[in-house]
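Re: weekly structure request thread

Next one in the queue (400 aa):
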Amino acid sequence: MKVYLDNNATTIVDPSVKEVMDPFFVEKYGNPNSLHAYAGETHPHIKTAMEKIYAGIQASREDSVVITSCATESNNWVLKSIYFEYILTGRKNHIIISEVEHPSIIATAKFIESMGCKVTYLPINAEGLIEAQSVRDNITSKTALVSVMWANNETGAVFPVEEIGEICAEYNVLFHTDAVQAIGKLPVSVQQFNVDYLTFSAHKFHGPKGVGALYIKKGREIMPLFHGGSQMGGLRSGTLNVPGIVGMGKAIEQAVDALDFEMSEIREMRDDFEDELLKIKDTFVVTPRNRRTPNTILISFRGIEGESMLWDLNRSGIGASTGSACASEDLEANSVMEAIGADEDLAHTAIRFSLSRYTTQEELDYTLDVVKKAVERLREISSSYAYSPEGHNSGLTAGH
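Done, posted below.
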């Protein structure tokens, strides 16, 4: 059996999404910026897709949503724009991010830090969560931006973006959130929450790879990413990815429509699967369930290297992860596990299982059987495994 449980890395394209994209490769292939009828064939479809994207995050018509290639691009754009507009000009000199942001935020922050920007890296607590008070405690009159993800890609931890947004508004500080792991799993509304910039990628909610977006609240500054054309209001020049835009519009519409299913049926399947995993001796899960996205489990099996477990899973046709796909070739300890203070052994043992609306109970039953056999095999040959009592690390939920 083949089982895909790495949906926080990417998702299958919904067949109906592929269907609406297909005509724009061969039949309706005109460049939208041309003046002839071939271009005109694409315009109504782009308009409809953009309306769906705006509706998917509850953006106002007065706001801007700019199509990008992915959230990594959008995240880079926001932070580098802040550097050029605020830091380089001397208006401000400081930004705040969390220590467990996606690598596209962490690496960009370190880059602008090397260029003279001061960066505060907020810690997470023992449950893998950001505390909003830490944002308030670190804001200064020189803070230009706070960037905190809506939900963590590894643990599924949902951060207090509503409260953080309120704090930023109180101090007149811009707020950006990477919402890649939130759309399709949680209600996302830029009207309800004080968000100045929001980024996401279509391939995280059953849309195509290679297309994402940056939301910009009305009146907020952003420098043009590319120059040389009028596309996207001159903010991101370049020929539009028509099939990608159409596909993302359909995918986000379906993701919003499926939210109730995600937050009930998928959550229940995840919880039952997690209960069974935690029956395995010396297993630990990060972040309480009610503070996580409904599809995600980050679990550690004491005494077993995460890469070794992935090898066994992969041999049995199961796709899972040790964390962020953008850092999948990095064999260092899991950054979230280190951040919560897990000991050296546990920091290398984390495995992420992330479900989707296509996950079946049969697949989870099969995975559980494979995991149990893998744990038994790997612990038998482990030189480091030794039983530790439940509760060895206070930040983790232990199995018996």
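Residues 361-380 form the longest helix (20 residues). The longest strand covers residues 296-301.
Next request, please.
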